[in-house]
């Protein structure tokens, strides 16, 4: 039995119709309709989805392409559009239709590809494309990229011509299916935001917890088709909690399979999902020494799983250095990225590992124990090596008595020492909530405590005023704003005046681009609308190297795209950040995680 790609596309298409309904549905009704659409789709296909021969990882890889951090395509809209038009031999009118995505109000590139290929719908009859075939094509496309994980690269079939198999898939898909296929490749569903927890739970009631336990589709479905195959995919809700507790007894962490992150309150996440053992080889000997590998004092007989953070330590300054120092010590798939303006590696700087948790020691599944017990295991397991390996500092707080006051004192100390903040973790909770040894409720999330979260309680914020000197349009981000018909620009370029004193004597202004702020989550909707509506009266076309009459632009050395328009009279915005960091290929410090707080309109 097979599962057709068109069946997955139908779910996505139905979800898009809800988002694009005219007139726009009230929020509560739209949420209810989306939920009903998902529930009914899984109810319709449940018996097929649970067949042993159905490729579950392929279906989830299509529904949640952004979760496949191990698959890197190395293609954005421009390159993918060129490949599609070449492989499908578009005529001039179709090419024109395809590239309309670069103009505001026309949708993203996959939507324009749908319009360009609509006339061919139904012209080729053949076997339907299955999700297995789609995953095979995706794996072959990403296996060619050195930034994909070693596991994906090992699947490359040198006898396969990727252009040929890609063409073979495209010509068999209908136009609306091509749209979704291209969005999977771009790893962005611009018009659809699937409720991940609902989708996973409708597929199988254990999936959300299993993916938290092991963040790997293949590993999770191996469990569902192996030791957990006796569990129905959607049992009565009244017995689900009991069944989860029972199922947790079959869970064992596996060395080499990524463990899911805990749930954070007030946290930003970033990181590479692929295996980076070779890129961190400078730490291999340090980790072995910290674990006493090869000595009588080593407590590990065969395997262990530790959690830690990589940092750079300075022997000269006797401290851990800033985040940006890491990039000149660690490559990504052999390439050092963003280091053009960084100093050379000094002999007194080196990598260090800070270990903060242990999940497995041989056959002892420590992740099922409370944090306090895991820390005791970590203390016995890891040897402190000054400047090379250490356990993270921690303090037990009892909020039933003096914990709140102690936390205030600790936080004040952290600010004085210029720490980023603290993470609060429940002392008695296991790493994976399902593995609690009793049915008492335990908190299953961590709390990030940082000064910019506490502004309303007297805390300070890292803020600054910047000029918005230009902008550009990103069709995929435009769709996510819900303002596609009225939005002209999604990315805004922040500049700093570099010749303030000379300007007073009549010299032309010079702005250095210091950051690009994108509409997604970083600009309040009201301010985004203001910048778009008022910016059209200030904008002039801009190309790199073009001399502007109002001011000059000092070249930015980052890897981002250059702006498309400049604003004759720049806007002034208040920008909020979380500390300061050195941007890639630059020599100055800039706000970390910059986002617009407000536009100054006076």
From TrEMBL:
Keywords of this entry: ATP-binding, Ligase, Nucleotide-binding, Nucleus
GO BP annotations listed: DNA recombination; double-strand break repair via nonhomologous end joining; nucleotide-excision repair, DNA gap filling
GO molecular function: ATP binding; DNA binding; DNA ligase (ATP) activity
Source domain of life: Eukaryota
Ranges of residues in domain ATP-dependent DNA ligase family profile: 353-498
Entry's Gene Ontology cellular component terms: DNA ligase IV complex
Pfam family, one: DNA_ligase_A_M
InterPro entries per UniProt: DNA_ligase_ATP-dep_cent (IPR012310), DNA_ligase_ATP-dep_N (IPR012308), DNA_ligase_N_sf (IPR036599), LIG4 (IPR029710), NA-bd_OB-fold (IPR012340)
The family this protein is said to belong to: Belongs to the ATP-dependent DNA ligase family.
Protein name: ATP-dependent DNA ligase family profile domain-containing protein
Lineage: Eukaryota, Fungi, Dikarya, Ascomycota, Pezizomycotina
């Amino acid at each position: 039995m097979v599962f057709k790609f068109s069946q997955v596309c139908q779910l996505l298409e139905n979800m898009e119709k809800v988002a694009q309904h005219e007139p726009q549905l009230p929020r509560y009704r739209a949420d209810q309709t989306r939920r009903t659409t998902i529930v009914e789709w899984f109810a319709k296909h449940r018996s097929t989805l649970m067949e042993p021969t159905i490729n579950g990882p392929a279906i989830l890889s299509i529904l949640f392409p952004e979760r496949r951090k191990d698959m890197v395509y190395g293609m954005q809209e421009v390159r993918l559009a060129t490949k599609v038009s070449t492989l499908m031999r578009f005529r001039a009118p179709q090419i024109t239709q395809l590239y309309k995505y670069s103009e505001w109000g026309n949708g993203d590139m996959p939507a324009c590809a749908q319009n360009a290929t609509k006339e061919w719908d139904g012209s080729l009859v053949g076997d339907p494309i299955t999700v297995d075939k789609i995953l095979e094509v995706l794996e072959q496309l990403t296996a060619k990229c050195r930034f994909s994980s070693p596991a994906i690269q090992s699947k490359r079939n040198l006898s396969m011509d990727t252009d040929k198999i890609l063409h073979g898939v495209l010509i068999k898909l209908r136009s609306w299916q091509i749209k979704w296929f291209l969005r999977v490749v771009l790893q962005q569903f611009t018009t659809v935001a699937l409720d991940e927890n609902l989708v996973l739970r409708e597929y199988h009631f254990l999936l959300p917890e299993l993916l938290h336990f092991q963040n790997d589709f293949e590993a999770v479905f191996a469990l569902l088709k192996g030791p957990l195959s006796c569990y129905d995919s959607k049992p009565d809700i009244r017995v689900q909690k009991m069944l989860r507790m029972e199922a947790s007894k079959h869970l064992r962490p596996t060395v080499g399979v990524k463990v899911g992150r805990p749930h954070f309150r007030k946290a930003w996440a970033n990181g590479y999902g692929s295996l980076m053992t070779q890129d961190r080889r400078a730490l291999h000997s340090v980790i072995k020494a910290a674990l006493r590998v090869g000595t009588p004092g080593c407590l590990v007989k065969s395997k262990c799983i530790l959690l830690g953070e990589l940092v750079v330590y300075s022997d000269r300054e006797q401290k851990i250095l800033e985040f940006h120092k890491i990039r000149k010590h660690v490559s990504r798939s052999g390439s050092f990225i963003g280091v053009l303006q960084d100093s050379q590696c000094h002999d007194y700087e080196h990598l260090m590992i800070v270990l903060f948790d242990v999940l497995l020691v041989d056959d002892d599944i420590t992740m099922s124990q409370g944090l306090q017990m895991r820390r005791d295991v970590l203390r016995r397991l890891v040897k402190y090596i000054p400047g090379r390996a250490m356990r993270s500092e921690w303090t037990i707080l009892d909020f039933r008595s003096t914990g709140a006051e102690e936390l205030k004192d600790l936080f004040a100390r952290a600010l004085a020492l210029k720490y980023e903040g603290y993470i609060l973790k429940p002392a008695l909770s296991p790493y994976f909530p399902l593995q609690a040894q009793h049915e008492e409720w335990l908190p299953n999330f961590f709390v990030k405590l940082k000064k910019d979260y506490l502004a309303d309680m007297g805390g300070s914020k890292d803020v600054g005023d910047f000029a918005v000197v230009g902008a550009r349009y990103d069709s995929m981000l435009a769709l996510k704003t819900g303002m596609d018909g009225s939005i002209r620009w999604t990315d805004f370029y922040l500049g700093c005046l570099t010749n303030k004193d000379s300007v007073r004597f009549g010299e032309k202004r010079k702005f250095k681009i210091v950051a690009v702020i994108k509409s997604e989550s970083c600009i309040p909707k009201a301010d985004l609308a203001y910048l778009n509506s008022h910016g059209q009266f200030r904008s002039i076309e801009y190309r790199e190297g073009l001399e502007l009459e109002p001011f000059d632009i000092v070249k930015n050395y980052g890897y981002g795209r250059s702006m498309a328009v400049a604003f004759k009279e720049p806007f002034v915005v208040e920008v909020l950040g979380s500390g300061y960091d050195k941007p890639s290929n630059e020599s100055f410090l800039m706000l970390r995680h910059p986002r617009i707080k407000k536009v100054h309109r006076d």
